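=== RUN LOG ===
request id: a7f3
mode: sequence -> structure
chains: 1
length: 253
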Amino acid sequence: MAQLRDPEKGCPWDRKQTYKTIVPYTLEEAYEVADAIEREDFDELKSELGDLLFQVVFYSQIAKEEGRFTFDDVAADIADKMHRRHPHVFADANFETEEQLGSAWEAIKAQERDRQPDGSALAGVTQGLPALMRAQKLTKKASKVGFDWPNPEGAFDKMVEEVAEVREAWASGDRDHLADELGDILFVMTNIIRKLGFESEEIMRAANNKFERRFRAMEQYLAAQGHGDMTQLELEQMESAWQEIKKDEKKNV
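=== RESULT ===
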C-alpha cells in the first residue's frame, strides 16, 4: 500500500484517494463478504475477506502518511479492546450465566462510553450503518435504559396505529407527512423484529432473495407457456403464475 501511494512511483488512482473517497468501496466489500457467507462460497469468502482487509490497510496507510496512526496501532487497539471486554477469558473474572456475562459486557461498554464526549445511551450507533441495522441498534440501546415495550404485543399495537396514520397521511395528499409516517412504520417493524430475536438486515436480505427467486421462476414459468414478454400480460395472469410458483415451493419443502 505504501508503494501504491508512493508520490513518485505509485499508482495515480491510489495516490489521490482519501478517507472519504474509499468509503463506498469499503461498504461494497463488506456486503460482498456477507454475500459470500450467505452463499457458503468459502473460496470466494477468502478472496472477499482479503479485499475487505485491503480497505483497512488503505485507511491505515493514509493515516500513517498524516502522522495519525499505523496499521499496527489499529491491530493493537482492537486487541486491547478484546482483552478489556473479555475479563473472563484474559483475566480472573468468572461469570456463572450468559446473563451475567451480558451484563458485564454492557457495563464495560458503558465505562468506555463514559470516557467519550457523547454520554448519551445512544452513543456509538454510527450514522454510516444501513438504515435498518441502525434502527435496530438504536432501539436496542434505548431498551437498555428501559425505554421499550415490555413485550412484542405493545409493538404490534403500535404497528396497527402507524398503519392507520399512513392511511390518513396518504389521504391528506401531504407527501412530506406521508414519508414521515412510512418511516415510522419501518422503524416500528425493526423494533418488532428485534424483540422477536431476529436481525432486520438478515430478515430483509432473506426477503429480497425470496422475491428474486420467485420472480425469476415466474418469468421462466410464463416463458414456458409462450408469454416471453411479461409487459403484454395482465396483472391477474402474473399473479396466477406467482401463486403457482409459491405452491411449487411448498411442495418441495
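=== NOTES ===
Residues 200-224 form the longest helix (25 residues).
Residues 203-252 form one domain.
=== END ===
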